[in-house]
Amino acid sequence: MASFLQQGFLLITLALFNLVGPVPPELGLHNGSLSPCPTPAHCAQASWAVADPGAALSSLVPTIEAMPRSLVVNQGDGYLHATATSALFGFVDDLELFADTDNGQLQARSVSRLGDSDLGVNSKRLEKIESALKDWQASQSPS
Question: pTM of this prediction?
Fold first, then answer.
C-alpha cells in the first residue's frame, strides 16, 4: 500500500511541474515557408505535394483537433499552429502546417519545446497527419 501511495505522489508531483517551456520564436512563416528544424533529435518536418494546399490544410483540422491533448492555437491565411501536450509530464510540442499554394505543397513541422530528444513523437505525429492527408486525397479522386 505504501508503495502505491509513493508512486501516486510521485506522479502527482511530476504532473505539477507541467514542463511547458517557452513558445519558440521561430514559429510562423519566414520567407514563405516554415522554419527548418534546428535538430532532427526533437523536430520533424515534411512537405507533401497536393493539388489544393488550402483545402488539404482545412481537411486536416478535424484530425489535429482529435489528437489527444492537442489544441489549435492559431488558424488562418493558410497557416495553422497547434500544440500537443504529453500525458505524463506535460511536455509541449508545437505543430505547424502551411498551405504553400505557390509551390503546390502542404508544409508541416512538429517540434518539442524542451529536451534534447523527443523519442520519435514528432515524426509519428507527422506520419499520422500524412496518413489522414492520403485518405482525404483518395476521397477526392473520381472513382
Answer: 0.84
